[in-house]
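Notebook entry, structure prediction.
Reason for the run: the old model in the group folder had no record of what sequence produced it. Starting over properly, with the input documented here first.
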Amino acid sequence: MKIRRIPFDIGQAMGIGVDFDFRWAYDEQTSLVGVGYSFYLEYIEYFCNFVSKYARPYIDDQALLNHEQAFLTQEMHHAKAHKHLNSFLSAAPAIKDAFHPRIYPYLQSFHEAHYKPIMQGIAEGKPSALKDALFKIAVFESKNCVSSFIFFEQLFLGSNFERTCASSGNIGILYLLAYHFAEEIEHCDIAVDMCQYIFQEPVWNAARVQSQIFDLHHAEQESLTAALHCAQQLGVKTDIDRLSSSPFMTFTKARQIELINVDFDLNAGTVLEQRKFYVRHWDEVWEPALRQRVLQQIEERTAAID
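New structure, fully documented this time:
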């Protein structure tokens, strides 16, 4: 795994301020889903960080511990980068409690219902709570890997890269999400390995495929609620149904249903091939080209101010 850093001021790149344009993608609903997803991503990174402190003592495989540390370092870099966008779009500052350092007020109910009881149980030394948390993270990383495939497939693959860059109203947000999704693809297997190492059972069984892939899951509602909040802040009219029917959400759900079953393996077959392909292309092709565009835009903005 590689520890990457965004090589410019991401807040400046996103045009945080009066000239901000949320339309980073090819359609408005997908753009809103993306900025909403930014909130959920930041939240879950800190959840992972909390859980890690309690999970690491159960692992005596040094190679896995090293991979987990790299995974966590990437996640904390992501959280720091997303703060710029999220703090700007949130109607009120993030708050903290005894377990989580940054909870945006409109996600408070999700925190109280789905995460705080687990975190409290972990802090109290309950093995069942740690198991719930690690399986939750492993499921998230698995599903997010597939979401990331769709992101690059729809926006970057082939001629889509030039088309996306030309039509994007905010290549800073585009860069932030692409950087994040590339690293999600790279490290997604670590959470699964951690979970399966400690509990000696597969992440994906028939019951979990049904509840996490086919049934409506609260994580999807969290990201959509965040997207709806962003729309309200930006004065854009939409609703949960329109957001959930956006191209990105529609393609992602279909691909998750196609790929994730009881035999789903992030380190085998075409899934592994895609992981390697997208990470390599981000590092060698798409990131340098997108970075050049972002730096040029920053230079133009700076010159206009001067």
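Summary: The CA atoms of residues 49 and 72 lie 7 Å apart.
The old model has been moved to the deprecated folder.
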